[in-house]
Prior knowledge:
Helix content is about 40%, strand content about 15%. The chain is an alpha+beta fold. The protein has two domains: about 5-155 and about 260-275, no CATH class; about 155-255, Homeodomain-like (Arc Repressor Mutant, subunit A, Orthogonal Bundle), CATH 1.10.10. Helix 4 runs antiparallel to helix 5. Residues about 260-275 have low confidence and may be disordered.
Amino acid sequence: xxxxRLIPASLEHVVEGLWGSSGDAPANDPPRTVLPTGTVEIxxxxxxxxxxxxxxxxxxxxxxxxxxxxxxxxxxxxRGRHDLxxxxxxxxxxxxxxxxxxxxxxxxxxxSEFIDNGEVAWLEDHLNAARGLTARARxxxxxxxxxxxxxxxxxxxxxRHAAQCLGTSRTHRTVRAVAHDLGLSQRHLARCFGEDxxxxxxxxxxxxxxxxxxxxxxxxxxxLAAIASAYxxxxxxxxxxxxxxxxxxxxxxxxxxxxxSRQDVTSRLFHCVYL
Length: 275
């Protein structure tokens, strides 16, 4: 079982989390929907190919790839043997390790697009030779730690501060208010934010607000109007619009969706971002 304790102190402000899973995926397990999370993820796949049915009509993805910021749901299909390691990066820190990754919004790209081919080959060889998820996680984190120490640039404070303010649950600050606090125009903040994170501040704020409201929608113990009010939506229709945009479902459908089974690989891997 992977835990955040594996993340070295030097990467605590870079790596948001890590997850891993290995075993055989149930043959009859239906595809699950992955929602936008506001993070950038590096995915290492040592098992059978993963197919994202929303990408190039089901093209299998490479064994090591990066998922950029997402603004729509995606559906990965895992069949056969799976052996996965996922490292999730804070959005303001990802460009310091993976220059250019902001251009991969709503897309997938081989890790070699952002890191030298020789270094990627070294990493792949060592990961394949390692035994067990914990050993592989330590190797991957050590590799990222070296990158961070030798070549990473310091994230722009204004982008980090803006993303943290816009992504904080329950505060729901407007882009205008955040820009004002930073002494910037909205246009300047939007330009810097887009360059580093790959989304506009408003879109990022919408993604994070929906993620914060998602557990309440899944529990279904409060009315939709009450949930919309609690999470800063103008009204229930406003929340429903974002629910459809980011999950492809209505709030009612999210509440009625069956819980993930213990054998559900993708739900165990990504926790609450799966429906």
